[in-house]
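Supplementary notes (optional reading)

For those who missed the lab, this is the record we used. Protein: Membrane protease YdiL (CAAX protease family). Length: 239 residues.
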Amino acid sequence: MPNARTSVFIELLKFIYNPDEEKEQNSSIYRKIYKTVVLFIVSFPLTLILSIVITYITNKSVKIHESAENYDFTLFILTCLIVPLIEEVAFRLPLRYSKISLSLSITVLSFYTINYFFTLKDHFDTENYFFLRIVFSILVGIFFYLFCLKYSNSFVKLYKNNFNVIFYFFSVLFAIMHISNYEFTLDTLLIAPIITLPKLISSFVGGFVRVKYGFLYCLFLHSFHNTIPFLIISTKILQ
């Protein structure tokens, strides 16, 4: 008989192989927290080691934005709280269908998309028509919400019949989005599946936690994944 720590990984692997919408029933908050922590303890070192190996093999390192040069409290809030929240809303919240969830996701994804048409330091650059980019994204989200109101039954059927495709789509999209963390060159694009593999693994784990346990658990998982590297790097800089 597998113990609790082993069983959660068996559940994860089965889910990745064949994603389903079934939420874990009759689990206490403590149990969900425990399983989330167990997944973090294993997935974080795995993705970290994989990232180091891939960086060494490909000679591709994450580019450092100007805003990341000073590791202060503001950057901590942005990196460890705001960014995880925004990304979870975009890529994990819509894994369980509701008109609001999917519309919020589309709003954030619209913001990411329009940003590629501007010369920005990062997605949170407040220059270059920041207000207009925000307003445009919100309008897209409102339009999509109205669209969902009209075709809600169709979306429910779509999720029910094609949940595995939806799960893989948002997981891969999450990984692909992080290609912007690297300098944009032809060879970067050619090896994109390799250098984004750690993000894809993180996305699979986060998606599993979101579907089985709930949104807050995958948000905490993502936040922890960002917090530890931030603390390690900031500690080195302050020394």
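If you only remember one thing from this example: The mean pLDDT is 88.
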